[in-house]
Design goal:
The complex is a heterodimer of chains A (about 80) and B (about 550). Chain A is an alpha+beta fold. Chain A is built from two helices and seven strands. Chain A has a single domain, classed as Ubiquitin-like (UB roll) (Roll). In chain A, strands 2-1-7-4-5 form a five-stranded mixed β-sheet. In chain A, strands 3-6 form a two-stranded antiparallel sheet. In chain A, a hairpin with a 2-residue loop joins strand 4 and strand 5. Chain A starts with a strand and ends in a 6-residue tail after the last strand. Chain B is elongated. Chain B has eight helices and 34 strands. Chain B is α+β, with helices and mostly antiparallel strands and about 550 residues long. In chain B, helix 1 runs antiparallel to helix 2, helix 3 packs parallel to helix 8 and helix 5 packs parallel to helix 8. A six-stranded mixed β-sheet of chain B has the order 15-12-14-13-17-16, with no helix packed on it. A six-stranded mixed β-sheet of chain B has the order 24-21-25-29-28-26, with helices on both faces. Chain B starts with a strand and ends in an 8-residue tail after the last strand. Classes of the chains: A alpha+beta (about 80), B alpha+beta (about 550). Chains A and B meet through strand 5 of A and strand 4, helix 1, helix 2, strand 8 and strand 34 of B.
């Protein structure tokens, strides 16, 4: 599972993506737990970050699979 | 609807051809979003955009499809440029074809709004106009200068670095409540200093298996009667009494039968019923660390340890000026255009948590008159550790407080921050003295005080600056994306599952006073967030009212 970081989250994590290999699908809580373990500083951004799974915003009860592309979307500012 | 989407690093062409003509097309509407020469109050020469291209394309398509169900259009073309885009050039182009102009206008308006909420594209940084433009001089999130809007974090870092702890002094315990302890205090002796009984009962040797015992002495709480016990001997002891020697245990009086000077143990307990020497604290162990706020319990601990004159922060000398010719005292009835002064009592109340001597006065909103009034005051401003000025800080009147603080010798560190409410906040320093110009509205006062001023006061006294905690929203936080970070008044409570839930309070603008009475927390809403769903995780700052609120 590749988890991608954008905008200020790249500065927070110091990278633009990370590979996770969970044995079982992760729900939102477990995914965040995994990410916070590696990047505790992400905690400050959790409230404002939306999760995307395979190029779509994830629903609250989404399951994230090993083959998914996941992204952390901080507040956007395009246009 | 026919949809064409491009996310590109290339400049967007000056002219874009409309979709091939069709019999029913009556309108071809074009919109170009262009990079402005100013971002966050700072003049810039370019903006850098970043995208998650795969998802951005899908989101744009999803939005157009969804919106065109309500506003039927025939074709749309969206081009978003990413990378470095110089001022004046197009960042986004949208063209919409529809049978009549109404549908195209409605779709375009809604699409642009939604794009700014949902499409994963970010402005990543601005290039300062003063810097020569070039690929190698990439300035991302360039540090702001004095004139620029500081983020809350930047402002706090600046305040923390500019405010230094004032010299500490020894103060009697009775005057130390609320002060910050400036030395680590260690236990001067073991606590308790002797083995003490925790029960009323009879002390016997630990391993004495005798059937009956001879009472050889009685020891009350204040007695000091050392002696060696022999097997078969017991000493009557009161709760708290110093035991006569080591290797004893105390049998509760409920578990003995007494006949004259003889006792018999009815039930043997497994516990010794003794508070052993050094059980609470060993000599030399830290009791309180430097930086601790001395509340009632901490003072009691210092008293126990015999520290009658702890080294603590000084009482702060605070001067608070209200300004504004429309302000009248609370006991008067306002004429049209006048308002009652609530900031004086608000500041006085907020300062209750900080031992200080407060002087307050009202100044006319005229620089020369204000200066002459200051020279006639009964107190010396030059002695003040902290100067607070309410009002006279917003755009237009900004110069008043700004000029006043400069005239009083303060260097202005910044004169606005990217905070809602509370943007026109002024921070100045003069050696160890600090000054704040607080935006006039009470809610701005409340917000700026609890975070910004409180941080400065904590630094000056050597205490811990206020800190955010994690909580969950109890209900939706209704907000539009705002380019400023927000400290949103809220009321926290402990939910049945023992987590902190926050109820956002309604406030329309910074002059709202009603929510002040119930707010016991400030929820931190990052810039450009928009509405937050129930149960969203948020950071919050408990505020002073927390203790009194239910």
């Amino acid at each position: 599972m590749r988890v991608m970081f954008f905008a200020q989250l790249k500065d927070v994590t110091g990278c633009d993506s990370v590979e996770l290999a969970p044995a079982l699908p992760l729900n939102v809580e477990l995914l965040w737990a995994e990410l916070l373990k590696q990047f505790p500083k992400l905690a400050a951004h959790r409230a404002s970050v939306r999760l995307a799974r395979n190029w779509e915003y994830a629903v609250p009860d989404a399951q994230f699979f090993n083959t998914d592309e996941v992204a952390l979307i901080p507040p956007v500012s395009g246009g | 609807m026919e949809i064409e989407i491009q996310i590109t690093c290339e400049p967007i062409a000056e002219t874009i051809s409309p979709p091939p003509p069709s019999g029913v097309t009556g309108a071809w509407l074009e919109f170009r979003g262009v990079v402005r020469g100013e971002e966050n109050g700072q003049s810039i020469s370019a903006l850098e955009y970043e995208a998650y291209p795969e998802m951005a394309g899908r989101e744009i398509r999803r939005l157009l499809t969804e919106i065109s169900a309500r506003h039927p259009c025939m074709a749309a073309k969206v081009i978003h440029r990413v990378g470095v885009i110089p001022v004046g050039e197009t960042a986004i182009y949208t063209g919409v074809a529809s049978p009549h102009r109404g549908e195209a206008i409605a779709l375009l308006a809604e699409f642009m709004d939604r794009l700014k909420q949902d499409v994963p594209i970010w402005k990543r940084g601005e290039r300062s106009a003063e810097l020569p433009f070039g690929v190698n001089q990439k300035v991302i999130n360039a540090p702001n200068r004095n004139s620029a809007l500081r983020s809350l974090d930047e402002a706090m870092a600046e305040i923390i670095s500019r405010c230094q702890p004032l010299p500490a002094g020894r103060t009697p315990l009775g005057e130390s409540f609320g002060r910050i302890l400036r030395e680590t205090v260690c236990a001067p002796e073991d606590l308790p200093p002797f083995d003490r009984s925790t029960r009323d009962g009879c002390a016997i040797l630990t391993n004495d298996e005798s059937e009956s015992f001879q009472i050889v002495d009685t020891i009350h709480a204040a007695d000091w009667k050392p002696r060696r016990l022999k097997p078969g001997e017991a000493v009557r002891v009161a709760t708290g009494a110093l035991l006569p020697c080591e290797y004893l245990r105390v049998v509760m009086q409920e578990n003995v039968e007494r006949t004259g000077d003889q006792i018999r143990i009815v039930r043997r307990e497994t516990t010794a019923n003794i508070s052993f020497r050094g059980e609470d604290l060993r000599a030399g162990e830290p009791l309180l660390h430097a930086g601790a706020r001395l509340d009632a319990g901490a003072l009691a601990l210092l008293a126990t340890a015999g520290n009658a004159n702890p080294l603590v922060s000084p009482r702060l000398r605070v001067v608070h000026f209200t300004t504004g010719d429309e302000i009248i005292p609370p006991d008067r009835t306002p004429k049209p255009g006048q308002i009652r002064d609530s900031n004086s009592i608000l500041i006085r109340g907020l300062l209750q948590n900080f031992p200080c001597d407060l002087e307050q006065a009202h100044l006319p909103e005229d620089f020369e008159r204000a200066r002459s009034e200051i020279s006639n005051l009964k107190f010396q401003i030059s002695n003040a550790d902290v100067l607070l000025v309410s009002g006279g800080a917003s755009v237009g009147e900004k110069d008043f407080t700004h000029a006043l603080l400069k005239a009083l010798g303060f260097e202005i560190v910044f004169n606005q921050i990217n905070l809602r409410p509370g943007r026109p906040l002024i921070f100045g320093v003069d050696g160890p003295r600090v000054a704040f110009g607080l935006p006039g509205n009470p809610l701005s006062h409340f917000v700026c005080f609890h975070f910004v001023v409180a941080t400065a006061l904590a630094r000056l006294t050597g205490g811990e600056p206020p800190n955010f905690f994690c909580g969950q929203l109890a209900e939706k936080l209704e907000d539009q994306p705002c380019p400023r970070e927000t400290l949103w008044p809220a009321k926290w409570e402990i939910s049945p599952d023992a987590t902190v839930r926050l109820h956002p309070l309604a406030w329309a603008n910074s002059s709202n006073v009603a929510c002040l009475a119930s707010a016991n927390a400030l929820v931190r809403v990052p810039a450009n967030t928009g509405p937050l769903a129930p149960f969203a995780g948020v950071d919050f700052l408990p505020v002073a009212a927390m203790l009194g609120a239910t």
